[in-house]
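Hi L., both proteins are below.
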Amino acid sequence: MTVRQEIEDKLRAAFAPRDIEVVDDSASHAGHAGAPAAGQSHFNVMLRSSDFEGKNRVARHRAVHAALGAELIGRIHALALDLDV
């Protein structure tokens, strides 16, 4: 399973989103410091879920990081989050 699929599966399970898109943007960062040659390190996530209602940006980001877990977060170099209700 790819890291992109792991991210999507964990976020779907945690938030039952009405809309989700996980994009592996690693190729755009090839050769940059911290970017592994194998890729699967830079991701853009767009997630819409009613679970975010009433939560500020920091609380939403913390919820996503908790849902992904420390092990998976540790394998990701960059994670851009676009989170809304």
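That was the first. Here is the second:
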Amino acid sequence: MPADDTDAAPSGRVLNRRTGSKGASPAIEARRPGRSPARTRRPSASRPPRSRGARRLYEQARRAWDRPLTAYYLILGSSLLITVLGLVMVYSASMIKALELSLPASYFFRKQFLAAAIGTGLLLIASRMPAKLHRALSYPLLMGAIFLMVLVQIPGIGHAVNGNQNWIYLGGPFQLQPSEFGKLALILWGADLLARKQDKRLLTQWKHMLVPLVPVAFLLLGLIMLGGDMGTAIILTAILFGLLWLAGAPTRLFAGVLGIAALVGLMLIKTNANRMSRLSCIGAIDLGPQGECWQAVHGIYALASGGWFGSGLGASVEKWGQLPEPHTDFIFAIAGEELGLAGTLSVLALFAALGYAGIRVAGRTEDPFVRYAAGGVTTWITAQAVVNIGAVLGLLPIAGVPLPLFSYGGSALLPTMFAVGLLIAFAREDPAAKAALAVRRPGVRWKTMRRRVKMRPSGER
């Protein structure tokens, strides 16, 4: 006897014992034209709690990433973290070098700390200055940088360090490298020049795009190359290309200028044995017959011996005279040895965050000067970081440029921190960011709270 309450009839009808009614069988009902089979709902499988939690975290992170003040906090936080970590690494990497020179162990650290304190003041000043004042400072800063770079080439005034004559002694232990301020001067002056030409709609003509930007940049490059500083010349060239790219230079023009710069650079490298040896040390794992790849190979040794989490602060072996310039050009190698892969990846992440925030500021503004200046500063910091870290990793020739905000050197730290202050000022000037900062002021918040209290129907405070 069937277990259900229906009996099949020969005609295809179904007799229901309980109700006595007849109806078509489900199979025949499904085959009738104009009727669709009834869809049986399956119980929907609920998402696992882990996937829902991950989705919620992703949405929260995306909303936080899109907030108006994201770029502002990224620039401020990443730059300060890089500077503080750099101070720690300068102290750790320079102790042995200072003792070798019969100086106190904290000698280089104290000088770097003083430069960082002055640089913090410059950062705060630059972050509070309006864009009009930055534009007004562009021409005096350019003229001052060119004047100082000319003084460097005068015998008795300029001094050579490591074969490059690009320093001016200020008295005592203090010295100045004017070419570092030339980078900042080119960015501000070039941004003001391109912004004024864009307002007059002159950038559609290639001669207005190149003149006088390219001749002035070549003047700075010539003064730098007279002192033999190839690394600073590379960074200045990257800044020039960044400004031209932001100005919308056509591909042919961009490629032409790049080709000329590459040809000139190749000629300068081939005519100098020291530069040729640096080029030949890319990816080297052997010291060479005369030890020409000593610095590059020992930089790899330092990174390789760091492991995942490093040997600990102060426990580097390579800084004991094996690795030249451990606190300046190759401080990233010491960071890799003492902090390990985790430390180096943290430094890379901080620079990536700073670069992303700079690109975001340049891309969201409507002011052409802000776009060119923010793009130029971002190009400067990221290009110099790539050149320095690439040389330590053996992927690029050793150019002799410091790691921005991280390596020892007050002449490099001061203009870089001022440039970071520029980015902070530009991030604050965004309309959405300005409105968000206005809401967070104590006075505005107190007025808002009082207004909300008055709107309560009960009248209770």
